[in-house]
Amino acid sequence: MFKIVHAQFLAPGIKRFVLQTPRIARKQKPGQFVILRIYEEGERIPVTIESSDPARGTISIVVQSIGKTTQLLNSLQTDDAIADVVGPLGKPSEIEAFGTVVVIGGGVGTAMAYPSAAALKRAGNRVIAIVGARTKELVILEQEMRAVSDALLITTDDGSYADKGFVTDKLRQLIENGTRIDLVLAIGPIVMMKAVAEMTRKEKIRTVVSLNPIMIDGTGMCGGCRVLIDSKSQFACVDGPEFDAHKVNFEVLVQRNAMYREAEQLSLADYQRGLAEKNAASKNAARAGVPREVEQSCIIAQGGIK
Predict the structure, then answer these.
(1) Which pLDDT belongs to residue 180?
(2) Backbone phi, then psi, for 53, in 5-degree steps?
(3) Most CB atoms within 10 A, among 82, 154, 183, 244?
(4) What is the CATH number of the domain that holds 117?
(5) If residue 238 lies in a helix (H) or strand (E), which one and from where to where?
(6) Are residues 17 and 65 in the same domain?
């Protein structure tokens, strides 16, 4: 079991966890991830490591509630525990002195982009960060990104904070203003990474994206994270997660990520229905004066976490 040292929401549905994982903390490098399982019968999910503290033996991850497992994970609190955390997995980001690097984080992708931005800055690069979110309340890690960047540009889809628009609007402005860009690193929704790749391809700007397809074992054995790179099959877990954006077949990536969408939606609906029933049972027990420890024993006896 791996203890949750600290848990805190950064934005609605987006939560940061600090986990006690000494071995992973000592080995982790920017761009790598872990695969975790909340309980023994649970689903394995990949999560990028936001940062690590080898001295404390901890890593930080940022999780957005989307499906059943991420909602269940985000219901955990400080001092709870996670059954399995495996890593660090994947190839680290390529960190060297490129020159001027534009690091783009879309939504929760900002948490994935942050460690690479920090490492690129330490390597002597001029780092221009672009952070995008749907609304003001979903902008995360603003201060952290500002601290490791020479310039920080923020956009929101609805214009509720900073400039209205998309991260590609800011990237286009940089290009049109004649900014020399030696490398672009883009991490976020597939549609965003594809749009960035299409823009930089025309400008012949080297671009890297981090792919997060369905994963199971994280060792290349299952084939679940297969991606098409330059018309050849590769595995995001061992060959990535970062790839040359101009070689990624985004259409195939979208198709593969949608393969289990119906099953995921059914699982989420079943979990939410069970949660509603549990909450109703808790209210009924409270009205009946049943002690909480007795109520919890009854819930566990009836099946516990599904």
Answers:
(1) 95
(2) -130, 90
(3) 82
(4) 3.40.50.80
(5) helix 236-239
(6) yes
Q: What is the DSSP string of 150-170?
A: SEEEEEETTSSSSEES-HHHH
Token pair listed for 174:
């940089």
Q: Is residue 248 packed enough to be buried (19+ CB in 10 Å), middle (13-18) or exposed (0-12)?
A: buried
Which residues sit opposite 59 in a β-bridge? 19, 52
Question: What does pTM read for this prediction?
Answer: 0.84
* SS3 state at 285: helix
In a domain, 176, yes or no: yes
Q: Is the pLDDT of residue 70 over 80?
A: yes
Burial code (b: 16+ CB inside 10 Å, e: under 16) for 153-182 equals bbbbeeeebbeeebbbebbeebbeeeeebe
Average pLDDT over residues 297-305: 47
What integer pLDDT is reported at residue 268 of this predicted model? 73
CA–CA gap between residue 36 and residue 180 (Å, rounded): 40
Sequence-separated contacts (24+) of 168-172 with Cβ below 8 Å: 168/192, 168/195, 168/196, 168/199, 170/130, 171/102, 171/104, 171/130, 171/196, 171/199, 171/200, 172/199
d(CA 188, CA 78): 27
In 3D, which of 102, 162, 165, 157 has the Cα closest to residue 129? Answer: 102
Total tally of structural domains belonging to the chain: 3
